[in-house]
Structure formats: C-alpha cells, structure tokens
UniProtKB/TrEMBL annotation:
Statement: the UniProt record of this protein carries the keyword Iron-sulfur: no
Protein name per the record: Protein translocase subunit SecE
Mode of membrane association: Single-pass membrane protein
Organism this protein belongs to: Novosphingobium malaysiense
One Pfam family from the record: SecE
Oligomeric form and interacting partners: Component of the Sec protein translocase complex. Heterotrimer consisting of SecY, SecE and SecG subunits. The heterotrimers can form oligomers, although 1 heterotrimer is thought to be able to translocate proteins. Interacts with the ribosome. Interacts with SecDF, and other proteins may be involved. Interacts with SecA.
Length: 64
C-alpha cells in the first residue's frame, strides 16, 4: 500500500467530507417520529406474543 503524505490525506478527507448528505430538520423530525411509533407498535406486539406464550406454557404446566 502506497504511503500518502499528510497534505494529500487532508485533501482527500475534505473531498470525501463534501460528499456527505446531511438531512434537513424536517427529515430528522419525521424519521424520529416514525421510529418512535414503530417502537411502540413492536413493543405492544411482542408484549402480546409474550403474554400468549406465557398463558400457553402455564396452561400446559397446569395439566401435569
């Protein structure tokens, strides 16, 4: 691997830094709200699944 001098390295870093896309405030807020809603929905779903499996296991154990 070829060595690059520090000046060339900094130019490459700046060049790559200009390619970064920063989302707008509106995009960030919209994404954060979507993530929050999906988190609540998935937590509710897994709570229901856990309760159902708990009920099934306790019902099977009560038969013993």
């Amino acid at each position: 691997m070829a060595k690059i001098n520090p000046g060339e390295f900094m130019r490459q870093v700046q060049s790559e830094g200009r390619k970064i896309y920063w989302p707008s405030r509106q995009e960030t807020v919209t994404t954060a709200i979507f993530v929050g809603i999906m988190t609540v929905l998935l937590a509710t779903f897994f709570l229901g699944i856990d309760a159902l499996f708990g009920w099934v296991v306790s019902s099977l154990l009560s038969l013993l």
